[in-house]
Prior knowledge:
The chain has 240 residues and is of the alpha/beta class. 38% of the residues lie in helices and 25% in strands.
Amino acid sequence: MNLIIDIGNTAVKAAWSDKMTLGKTFRYQGEKVQDFIASLTEKDKPDVMVVSSVYDISSSDAEAMTKECGSLLILDGKHPEMLYRHNVPQYMTYDRAASIIASRYLFKGRGVTIFDFGNTLTIDFIDKNGWYTGGNISLGCRTRFKALNRYSRALPLIDTPDEPSLLGTSLATSIEGGVISGIMFEIEGYVSLHQDNILVFTGGDANYFAKRMKNSIFVISNLVLMGLALIADEYVSKDN
Length: 240
């Protein structure tokens, strides 16, 4: 089996994969990423290990990872080859690219709008032929709450509410409504651009916003890992 690892801004996600099928997923938050990876390969060494990272992997880390697998594929800013191969813009991080690759596979022949709800909110569009037609990056839900608190001393840091009001009647509910309603209005605006597209929500806050939608939504929590699994399988097939 292959081992796929996604190193993000705040956490690391990993899973064993066989073609498109994912096994148990693992999540780690901390600074000892190499120790975490070593713990996954302690009993079994993967044939191929795919490591996607939002930051460039150092040569020493790459050397350590090489010892943990049969073959290592690094996907970071220094290795854009897979972006070219899958017709994804070079400026993208691989986690975002992996979501696009997975969506093309899952919804072949259909236009897709992908919303990824994390530290950032990314919105990407794929047409029915699988071509990437563009996308945007905005602040994620928790990032908005933190920004209001950080850049305005008069505003407190508010937790994401279970049931936000559309319009606030206090300082706290005004912040809750402003952030959540603002994101919902953004979503509705993007959905209106391509109303026939399939809607895919992924990321940590995907379920939170999906349950507030009137449209039919596909919530795929492991969309990035599924895309990386496809890349891993392609890498294996190419070697064979």
